[in-house]
Amino acid sequence: MGKVTGFIEIERHDRTYKPAADRIRNFKEFVIPLEERDLERQAARCMDCGIPFCHNGCPVNNQIPDWNDLVYNSDWEEASRNLHSTNNFPEFTGRICPAPCEAACTLNIDDSPVTIKTIECAIVDRAWDEGWIKPQIAETKTGKRIAVVGSGPAGMAAAQQLARVGHEVHLYEKNETPGGLLRLGIPDFKMEKHLIDRRMDQMIAEGVVLHCGIHIGVDMTAAELEANHDAVLLCGGSEMPRDLPVDGRELDGVHFAMDFLPQQNRRVAGSNLGEVEPILASAKHVVVIGGGDTGSDCIGTSIRQGALSVVQLEIMPEPPERENKGLTWPHWPLKMRTSSSQEEGAERDFAVTTMSMGGENGHVTHINCARVDEKFQPIAGTEFELKADLVLLAMGFVHPVAEGLINDLELELDGRGNVLADTNAYATNRDKVFSAGDMRRGQSLVVWAIREGRQAARSVDAFLMGSSELPR
Ligand SMILES: Cc1cc2nc3c(=O)[nH]c(=O)nc-3n(C[C@H](O)[C@H](O)[C@H](O)COP(=O)(O)OP(=O)(O)OC[C@H]3O[C@@H](n4cnc5c(N)ncnc54)[C@H](O)[C@@H]3O)c2cc1C
Ligand code: SF4
């Protein structure tokens, strides 16, 4: 523990954002990092708790008190080594993780947790700037050939771990670029995409062979995949969106969030949108249905595209401003949170359901809503109409797409339609086929995908070699 009285003397101080009026003019990141001196002071607030709840709250079990101490003592290079021992991609989580570690921090009992996520991000950004992050090339090769299907954070983490212990890893991705939802779902203003390219360059130098534009189950059959590899790890994500089967759903102008967001990410990247119909919020009244991360990303993107208004509807009741710490800490609390995108000018409404959508000449013009009771049933007499030229459905994802690869491999599914595999072996019912990330656990978070990718890599390595040195 760096400074014994740090948490008493030093106030919590976190990164700030550029003003909304400036940041909505482009799709760039807008977080203003803390100065080095400030970061070291913030790290000094860590109490090195006997039971570090932060470490348990973090899905990759980052050794948070250790690197807080290293930062306080200005040993940033060792802090980076320590951080990378549990997390392959801290520059992703340091930007977009909701930070369950901070909810779990002992100082959060007092609403002033250590600024863990900011320190994490600063450690890894500095490590890249200083040139401390280098490819870790295996000294000996095992001669084993592994297919990792899906290049989201789960597939990337698994591929990197497996290449580092000497396997020949082939990472297959159906899209034109790697990264999964990091690349095409999460907007650039939350995480710029050169960060993925830089990591992929590192992974390619470590021996990962990247095959983009290969849809397994379409461009390569499941049988070929199995025949050509000693083990197969499926990290295809949870891509089936939850639909809203109401009258008017078929109208033009009603789209899934994941039809809208990838288009903008491709525009920012300067890639070709192909034959698809452009979906733009410019000069439109936008209604976003769904209150989670995806909904927020639709808001920020719509505002940057020049929407006239953005309303976000959530079926759940408005959560409390402040959680009851005695009941929730150190767990993730349900409380009112306002994302940077919501701050930029969206109107939010809670406990609302969509009854139908109406339109003219085949195009949506409005949606018909009603307030709901505690059983989510519409309350008679509370109906209202909202103007809408663009409706974005952001109500989450139900399970992976089974048609194609999953069905061809005859994989067993769990009760929710995810690929059935436990979190010990990550093995499916089919010999030498494993699964991790959202495809196995259902829609989740980047940090959970990294954890599952790392753990599944260990299991695949042990399956091929009899034992594994990789961490769990
Ligand atoms: C809009 C949006 C915003 C989000 N924001 C956040 C956030 O701020 N913070 C956070 O922690 N989480 C966020 N999430 C959740 C997070 O992105 C996911 O939990 C995470 O990306 C899951 O990682 P994954 O590797 O399991 O799957 P994915 O990232 O979904 O990657 C799966 C990859 O597999 C590929 N694939 C699928 N099938 C095949 C096949 N047959 N052949 C070849 N390739 C295939 C897909 O093209 C995709 O690239 C967000 C999700 C969305 C949709
Ligand atoms: S819980 Fe908070 S104060 Fe305690 S070790 Fe973790 S970061 Fe430091």
Number of helices: 20
According to CATH, the fold-level topology of the largest domain is FAD/NAD(P)-binding domain
CATH architecture annotation of the largest domain: 3-Layer(bba) Sandwich
Shape designation: globular
Strand order of the largest sheet: 5-4-3-6-17
Structure class: alpha/beta
The strand count comes to: 17
Rounded mean pLDDT is: 97
* Terminal-residue CA separation: 26 Å
Name the quaternary structure: single chain
List the helices and strands and how they pair.
Layout (H helix, E strand, L loop, with lengths): L5 H4 L6 E2 L2 H4 L7 E2 L3 H8 L9 H5 L6 H9 L3 H9 L5 H7 L3 H5 L11 H15 L14 E5 L3 H12 L3 E6 L7 H4 L9 H12 L3 E4 L9 H7 L2 E4 L5 E2 L12 E3 H13 L15 E5 L3 H13 L3 E5 L11 H4 L11 H4 L3 E3 L2 E9 L2 E9 L12 E4 L2 E4 L3 E3 L5 H4 L24 E3 L2 H4 L4 H20 L7
Parallel strand pairs: 3-4, 3-6, 4-5, 6-17, 8-15, 9-10, 9-15, 10-11
Antiparallel strand pairs: 1-2, 7-16, 12-13, 13-14
Helix pairs in contact: 3-5, 5-6, 5-9, 6-9, 7-9, 10-20, 14-15
The structure holds flavin-adenine dinucleotide and iron/sulfur cluster.
